[in-house]
Design a protein that fits this description.
heterodimer, A: mainly alpha, Helix Hairpins, B: mainly alpha, about 0% strand
Chain lengths: ~110, ~500
């Protein structure tokens, strides 16, 4: 690997790590279910980028491509289901604050 | 013809959704029930010829190979039984044809996911099918769109999505270090290059994801909520298979034949198992809701499986799978009992159900069988699997963990006996203080309908529990002891 390519990868890696931190912070700090979903999306995006990087580094770009396309489909389905559940939570509670979801305890 | 386990539910899903009116109601139920029955029979009487005699022409539609071994057969059997029972329960408990039809569709999606999870041989496909199963179960929990159900579904979705991020990151690291994601390649790299930092990180992350998915104690927060808020027929499915297949089974599979079990990992698994057993059993003592108590009991029993896996010997592995099997049967039976009580009296609150159990004789007898089996009373099946686990722990010199497992068994007996006494043994009228609630409940009483599906399911599972206990030697020799070959 040539030096400038290695530099490029370190930028790539730093970007992935930043995305992970952003996503984790977003989930931890917010009291809004939609924002929590956005944070989750960021985390999955970071993992997707990591898979692309791993596939490129070990010379299996085709495999990584197949994985990433499958992953995008799955992720969209997760987000749609999550959106439906949040919509119903809003209809019940008139709010998308997860702290209102505290009826089940014990 | 292994791929039929994935294709048959898929084709059935397509068929029952043709826009023909007569397929929607009774017909969809009959087709789904016969499919599940066929799966149970195929897995139980596995003529090996069937798997190899015909070339698997459907398999080329997948980009990944499938494999069936003894462990997979046991899992397919468990999935078939529990899904069948859940389907029977749904027929009696869900209101309205549309709701039942939706349930059958989602059950088939979950079935595709679980069957494929059991059969796949690479880590990414494993992730895909865990996600398919999880997706169906989120919608199943929120099926009736009630306030509590939505809350349970949201908690499950959040935790499960975080677990999948862990697993995906682990897949990326495994791809980076092994260059491939099939079980064989990963196992090869793990045995040859054991010291690599990225590999350790990958195994650790995957373990975290699986522990969240299986609801072991530090990560158990979502599990009682999801189980108790879901409709009864869905809690049957969740407790019996969904969380067990997408968490515990994968732990068993990966740590038996893919990841190597280092001493550090053994200690983590042993500790997590022991903590789950004790904490969840103590938490179950204080519950006032039947389904919530069963959920905590489920966490506690999963602890036994994790503990046995952490022991790291072939015998302990056999014990873990045996306990997995028994737990699926008796915990499903208990959740069906809860469904029966909920249908009849409209509640699962133990205080309101007090003394009402004698009105349903089948439920009281079968719940007694299941509870004694859970607590590990000798002639029943739960005793033999716990015995194997404790024996394996003793022979490895893990005396403290073996002692913990034994003592927690007594706590299990304590909370279940208190439950039995309050609901089923409390003959005669409820206490005067509860008089108001008793009349409320008797208004909700539903004697006109006969719950034939639920009663059939209860009797079937009770027979399995008793037969498993009496014929344990046969089951061990034919099904479980050959599993020793899978262990590394």
């Amino acid at each position: 690997m040539s030096p400038d390519l290695a530099g490029l990868f370190s930028y790539f890696m730093i970007f992935i790590i930043l995305l992970f931190i952003c996503g984790a912070y977003c989930i931890a700090a917010t009291f809004n279910m939609v924002r929590a979903m956005i944070g989750l999306e960021l985390l999955i995006k970071a993992a997707t980028l990591l898979i692309i990087l791993a596939g490129y580094l070990c010379g299996r770009s085709a495999l990584a491509q197949a994985i990433v396309i499958t992953l995008i489909v799955i992720e969209i389905v997760v987000m749609v289901v999550a959106g439906g559940i949040i919509l119903w939570a809003f209809r019940h509670n008139e709010s998308i604050d997860p702290r209102k979801l505290s009826n089940l305890k014990g | 013809m292994t791929s039929l386990f994935i294709f048959a539910p898929f084709f059935l899903l397509v068929i029952i959704n043709f826009p023909l009116g007569f397929l929607k109601g009774r017909c969809a139920f009959c087709l789904a029930a016969s499919l599940l029955l066929a799966q149970v029979l195929l897995a139980a009487f596995h003529p090996w010829l069937f798997w190899s005699a015909y070339p698997d022409c459907l398999r080329q539609f997948f980009g990944f190979p499938l494999a069936v071994d003894n462990l997979a057969l046991i899992m397919l059997f468990v999935i078939g039984i529990v899904a069948l029972v859940s389907l029977l329960t749904a027929q009696d408990t869900l209101a309205g044809e549309k709701q039942k039809f939706n349930f059958i569709n989602l059950l088939l999606v979950a079935l595709i996911g679980m069957n494929a999870t059991v059969l796949v041989t690479d880590i990414f496909s494993l992730y895909v099918f865990i996600e398919v199963t999880a997706m169906a179960s989120f919608i199943l929990i929120a099926l009736e769109k009630g306030k509590f159900a939505i809350e349970g579904a949201f908690k499950y979705l959040m935790l499960s999505a975080i677990a999948s991020v862990f697993m995906l990151t682990s897949v990326a690291f495994l791809l980076l270090t092994a260059g491939d994601i099939s079980f064989a390649a990963v196992h090869h790299v793990l045995t040859n290059v054991p010291g690599s930092f990225f590999l350790k990180l990958a195994v650790g992350l995957f373990l975290c994801g699986l522990l969240i998915k299986s609801g072991v104690v530090p990560f158990h927060g979502w599990l009682p909520d999801a189980y108790s808020a879901a409709p009864s027929c869905v809690s049957v499915l969740l407790a019996g298979t969904v969380t067990k297949i997408s968490g515990v089974y994968i732990l068993l599979r990966l740590f038996s034949s893919v990841f190597t079990l280092t001493p550090a990992l053994q200690n983590v698994l042993l500790f997590a198992g022991a903590i789950s057993i004790v904490f969840a059993a103590l938490a179950a003592l204080t519950q006032d809701d039947f389904k919530r108590m069963l959920a905590y009991s489920s966490i506690s029993q999963v602890g036994y499986i994790i503990l046995a896996l952490g022991c790291g010997t072939p015998l302990a592995f056999v014990g873990a799978v045996f306990h997995f099997f028994n737990h699926a049967i008796f915990k499903t039976l208990l959740f069906v009992n809860a469904a029966s009580l909920e249908k009849r009296f409209g509640t699962t609150d133990i205080n309101q159900l007090e003394g009402l159990g004698e009105k349903c004789p089948v439920t009281s007898v079968t719940s007694l069988v299941a509870m004694l089996s859970t607590a590990g009373i000798p002639p029943l099946s739960g005793f033999w699997s716990k015995l194997i686990i404790v024996m394996a722990l003793f022979s490895k010199g893990r005396f403290i963990y073996a002692g913990t497992a034994l003592i927690a068994s007594i706590i299990t007996l304590a909370y279940f006996l208190s439950l039995e006494r309050r609901i089923f043994f409390n003959k005669g009228k409820p206490a005067p203080a509860a008089g108001g609630t008793a009349t409320q409940i008797s208004r909700g009483l539903n004697p006109a309908k006969n719950f034939s599906g639920i009663a059939c399911a209860e009797i079937l599972l009770a027979v399995f529990t008793i037969a498993g206990g009496l014929g344990y030697a046969f089951m061990l020799n034919t099904w479980f002891l050959p599993l020793k070959a899978i262990w590394h």
